[in-house]
């Protein structure tokens, strides 16, 4: 099985940093570490099975190739595009956000 490298964009890293800070402040370090574990599991899964994510937002946003994969036990979603040599992680967003608006922000950055 070929595993593609997962490469988060700067905005995706900022999303992750904000989520971690939120969990540390509002819950605990233990919850923040569990979030990191869930994110790492999602990245590993996406690297092995890039076609497994939902293409719902690709259609809604007219962004061919965009896929979404939810984190386990956390309300966050990883948005990515499968390229020939790596997985391009665009955003890691809370599922209750206005996803189309946030993704348009990522598209322009």
Descriptive notes:
This protein has 109 residues and is α+β, with helices and mostly antiparallel strands. The chain has four helices and four strands, in the order βαααβββα. It has a four-stranded mixed beta sheet. Helix 1 packs antiparallel against helix 2. The longest helix has 20 residues. The relative contact order is 0.21. The model has no long low-confidence stretch (mean pLDDT 93).
Ordered list of secondary-structure elements with their pairings:
Elements: E1 6-8, H1 10-26, H2 29-48, H3 56-61, E2 66-70, E3 76-82, E4 87-94, H4 99-108
Parallel strand pairs: 1-4
Antiparallel strand pairs: 2-3, 3-4
The share of residues in extended strands comes to 15-25%
User: SSE string, helix = H, strand = E?
Assistant: EHHHEEEH
Poorly predicted regions: none
Quote the average pLDDT.
Answer: 93
Sheet with the most strands? 4 strands, mixed
Largest beta sheet: strand ordering: 1-4-3-2
The global form is globular
Could you tell me the radius of gyration in angstroms? 13 Å
Structural class: alpha+beta
Please give the share of residues in helix. Answer: 40-55%
- How many alpha or pi helices? 4
Number of strands: 4
Please give the alpha-carbon distance between the first and last residues.
Answer: 33 Å
